[in-house]
Design goal:
The chain has 3 domains: 168 residues, Thiamin diphosphate (ThDP)-binding fold, Pyr/PP domains (Rossmann fold, 3-Layer(aba) Sandwich), CATH 3.40.50.970; 161 residues, Rossmann fold, CATH 3.40.50.1220; 176 residues, 3-Layer(aba) Sandwich (Rossmann fold). It is built from 22 helices and 20 strands. A 6-stranded parallel sheet has the order 3-2-4-5-7-6, sandwiched between helices. The chain has a 6-stranded parallel sheet with strand order 11-10-9-12-13-14, sandwiched between helices. Strands 16-15-17-18-20-19 form a 6-stranded parallel sheet, with helices on both faces. Helix 3 runs parallel beside helix 4 and helix 15 crosses helix 16. The longest helix has 15 residues. It is globular and about 70 Å long.
Length: 556
């Protein structure tokens, strides 16, 4: 393609990778790149904080299945990306993060706004690059997008010294040549046969599904397998939507705030088929007492996850979609009548519930109402009580429609991620289910939403406290509410109006449906401030370090 500057080459690489959107914030060392962006067809979304750029790219990736891209300047710009990169890493999200860097001759000399961002992010990236020569740009970008999106997805960082973006190169986009990186997608037939035999021999099977099924687009194969052998299915927070929750075989989410019946089923199962899940501590509770009667079949594209947390009887390394498809072929139709009856009994006796008829607005009722009015919506969450109520009381039926920070539990994630999701899927209704604590951590992105006409709907479940931490203080620290009171400051309706967004409020149950309908009808960014009680709790709950069998059903 002839000679071009490093900055022009970067944009050519992005174009060849199909990138439509970049979320970023400029700085001095990035001026050559931003000058090239000025003439580019790729749309750049100017955020108000670099952390939000990473979260928006993450939300875009989760909603679309494509690689998200963010950009930040050197030093504090780069370090502000770290929380977003770590969030994506923990939840296996395909992301390419570009950072500016001081010129190569100043690296290591503590130059103005210098930070060793490749060193800082080693633990939270799949791979990172410091580009020292402009001619390496095409190879590095080709590899970065490939690594981010293949095998177990994850973030890749590319650090770009200023002189590298100025120097010229002869542009040629290379083929992939990474002999040391070859993710194993094809499952081994013998292991599939062993897993199928174990399923057929079981009397009390449970299929336990994580985000790997979502990333591999294996939801149809999952439903086919579950229906063929009539096995109940439970999902992690990351797996929500991979199996329709209105399906008779659905157990909903398991773990610390999962359904009572999912946790009972896991504890009494004699076989667990785990697919694309990593046996996280929020799921297993006390490891020593997790699923004590079960043989475990673990399917995962990342061999490092198999056997990491729990003993595995039959390992299956490979892509979740292909594993589920092969298993569905290998098993015979079967029905476990007594086991399914027992599970149905638990579902009947221990449903998700909350006390209705109170004068105050119940957050669970808010989620049920959103589900009634907008059942196909994309639900993005902040972190805390709001996140768990969104997982529990909205009926999730589709993959890539529930977006949440799981592994890192990042407060402030939801709003910028919702902006990214809405920009990736403009035809879908996108809600950010927020708490008044989390929302304020990236509230400045109201400017991004308003200026770019991104009609996200933020539902603030406003209890005036840091709700989840306060719940633990209430239950385990003798109601000593140390530093968890926020006192309902600021006035979110006025904040919305100050930014040019629509601000609405509900203070009693009779107002909820009306304000939600008004928000859905709005064609601009909207905040709905819903006043709830600080004493509202997420239920059920497995105390930290306890067995799943010790699940508590709290009064709501």
């Amino acid at each position: 393609m002839g000679k071009m500057s490093g900055a022009e080459a970067i944009l050519e690489c992005l174009k060849l990778e199909g990138v439509e959107l970049i979320f970023g914030l400029p700085g001095g060392v990035l001026l050559p790149l931003y000058d090239a962006i000025y003439d580019s067809d790729i749309r750049h979304i100017l955020v108000r904080h670099e952390q939000a750029a990473a979260h928006a790219a993450d939300g875009y990736a989760r909603a679309t299945g494509r690689v998200g891209v963010c950009l930040a300047t050197s030093g504090p710009g780069a370090t502000n990306l770290v929380t977003g990169i770590a969030t994506a890493y923990m939840d296996s999200v395909p992301l390419v993060a570009m950072t500016g860097q001081v010129p190569t001759n100043l690296i290591g000399k503590d130059a103005f706004q210098e930070a060793d961002i490749t060193g800082i992010t080693i633990p939270v990236t799949k791979h990172s690059y410091l580009v020292r020569d402009a001619k390496d740009i095409p190879r590095v970008f080709r590899e970065a997008f490939y690594i981010a999106s293949t095998g177990r997805p994850g973030p890749v960082l590319i650090d770009l010294p200023r002189d590298v973006t100025v120097n010229e190169l002869d542009f040629e986009y290379p083929e992939i040549n990474l002999p040391g990186y070859s993710p194993n997608l094809k499952v081994h037939n013998l292991q599939i046969k062993r897993a199928a035999t174990a399923l057929m021999e079981a009397e009390r099977p449970v299929i336990y599904v994580g985000g790997g099924v979502k990333y591999s687009d294996g939801h149809k194969e999952l439903v086919e397998l579950a229906e063929k052998i009539k096995a109940p299915v439970t999902t992690t927070l990351m797996g929500i939507g991979c199996f329709p929750e209105d399906h008779p075989l659905s157990l909903g989410m398991l773990g610390m705030h999962g359904t009572t019946y999912a946790n009972y089923a896991i504890q009494e199962a004699d076989l667990i088929l785990a697919v694309g899940a990593r046996f996280d501590d929020r799921v297993t509770g006390k490891i020593a007492s997790f699923a004590p009667q079960a043989r475990i079949v673990h399917v995962d594209v990342d061999p490092a996850e198999i056997g990491k947390n729990v003993r595995v009887d039959i390992p299956v390394v490979g892509d979740a979609k292909s594993a589920l498809a092969e298993l569905a072929k290998a098993v015979e139709p079967k029905s476990w009548g007594p086991w399914n009856d027992k599970v149905a009994g638990w579902k009947n006796d221990h449903p998700l519930f909350y006390a209705k008829g109170a004068d105050s607005i119940k957050p669970q009722f808010v989620l049920e109402t959103i589900c009634k009015l907008c059942p196909e919506a994309v639900i993005v969450t902040e972190v805390g009580q709001n996140q768990m109520w969104a997982a529990q009381f909205f009926t999730h039926k589709h993959p890539k429609h529930f977006i949440s920070s799981g592994g890192l539990g990042t407060m402030g994630y939801g709003f910028p991620a919702a902006i990214g999701a809405k920009m990736g899927c403009p035809e879908k209704e996108v809600f950010d289910i927020a708490g008044d604590g989390s929302f304020q951590m990236n509230i400045q992105e109201l400017a991004t939403a308003v200026i770019n006409e991104v009609a996200v709907k933020v539902i603030v479940l406003n209890n005036g406290v840091l709700g989840m931490v306060r719940q633990w203080q209430d239950l385990f620290y003798e109601k000593r509410f140390s530093n968890t009171t926020l006192t309902r400051v600021p006035d979110f309706v006025k904040v919305a109006e100050a930014y040019g967004a629509l601000g609405l409020r509900a203070t009693k149950p009779s107002e909820v449906e009306g304000v939600l309908k008004e928000a859905i009808a709005s064609d601009r960014a909207t905040i709905v401030d819903i006043i709830i009680s600080p004493d509202e709790k997420v239920s059920p709950m497995v105390p930290a370090g306890a067995s799943l069998s010790e699940i508590l059903e709290l009064e709501g």
